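We modelled the chain as a single entity of 199 amino acids. Its sequence is:
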Amino acid sequence: MHIFALETDIGKLKASFLSEEEREICTVFFHGFRFFLTVLRLTLWTFLIIGIAMGIGLAGLPFSWVVIAASSVWLAFVSRPLLRAYLDWHYDFILITTDKVILVNQSSIFHQKVTPMNLENFASASAETQFWNLFPFGILHFNWKEGVGNGVNLRYIPHAHDIASCISDAITTFQRRKDLRRYGSTSEEEQRRGHEVRS
């Protein structure tokens, strides 16, 4: 389903990124622990707002005013970040294909950001533990070739080491295909000449 800029059909969204000869290797969603931390933080803010509202109410201000003011503050400072965190957790993902890595950020129904990164620009991919490796997620690092730009760090990636290994394999395969397209005919000629010499 399409809601303004938000595409809830992940399969349809992924298909729009793939070229004719390109295929998907894997799709990675962010770990739910990031959403849990946001919910925990916003719950504490909710209790704080309720506590302040009760204190103001006990001071003698009209109850209706207090409720309206507290609700407005909650909607402005709690509900929006909560919705954004849910959308990030449920609809943000990393798509790894045979040609590129695509970062999809859908943190709002009014805004979508898609960042395709060609494997040709990757120098390497690495992973780092997070929270003392107590949970099955970590930090994923994308390192660019010299002159391309700064690297990218993504936190709360499930099984980050496996994903880094998957991307490294994709980079190697991409480079081999590129070399084969560039030097394939020359290599075949040299190989044929070698057979002629040996015969």
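As a brief sanity check on the tokenised model: Confidence is low (pLDDT under 50) at residues 186-199. The chain has four helices and nine strands.
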